[in-house]
Amino acid sequence: MNKYFKMNNGIAIPAIGFGTWQTPDGDIAIQSVEQAIKVGYRHIDTAAIYGNEQSIGSGIKKSGSNRKDLFITSKVWNTERGYDKTLRAFDKTIKDLQLDYLDLYLIHWPATANQFENWERLNTETWKAMEKIYNTGKVHAIGVSNFQPHHLEALLNSATIVPAINQIEFHPGFMQEKCVKYCKEHNILVEAWSPLGTGRMLSNNLLKTIADKYQKSVAQLCIRWILQNGVLPLPKSISPDRIKENFEIFDFEISKEDMQTINNMEYCGGSGLDPDKISF
Q1: For the chain, what is the mean pLDDT?
Q2: What does the entry list as the binding residues for substrate (predicted)?
Q3: Mean pLDDT (whole number) for 25-52
Q4: Is 41 an annotated catalytic residue?
């Protein structure tokens, strides 16, 4: 399996990313990023709201890796939507990460009708700022996160640049088929946050049985399954052993039959975070 996907602007993105949501700021975040890069991750995903960007930046520096060999993503938070606020938020993120540029910048959540009468305009203004940043060369790709097809449809009505990425919750038992289908039809690569269902997949008996067949862990099975569905997984851990294990998914292939079995799993393990109903 190829270790890279290609985004719609032609740029390669490493096929597995290292997630940092809920990673505590400080030494733990620094060490986790350093360890991830040491075992082979070249793609680090963070966000302003995680409150750990400074530590992520320190971990990147401590790793001693050449910046051009890494792919770094961050996201603009909901309170910073709109043109001017987004530009300022990006500048702060770059400063906190101690970087000259980002590889990918995302709108973290769409503005939606349950909170804003002018939700479409708000997303449009935020996206115009993203396009401006992209055109300056300070970010190599721009995208969105948690956008459903109707949010994307509204955005594409005014966008000059089609989002390269849509990062959504995706794991066994929660495949968001309609959203993934829409993204693939519009050449938008899907990334999977919570690829292990925030750990809830690890105790699933069906997944345990299938994983045993390949002599792999349930985590490895889930990550590999996501990749074979053409989606980019973003596993997260602060355990050095787990960080390493989660990256070791390129040496086996899940059969078509087992892929179908996992694809057919009933809803389970979802976070319940619906972008049209959130209040944050």
Answers
A1: 97
A2: 108
A3: 98
A4: no
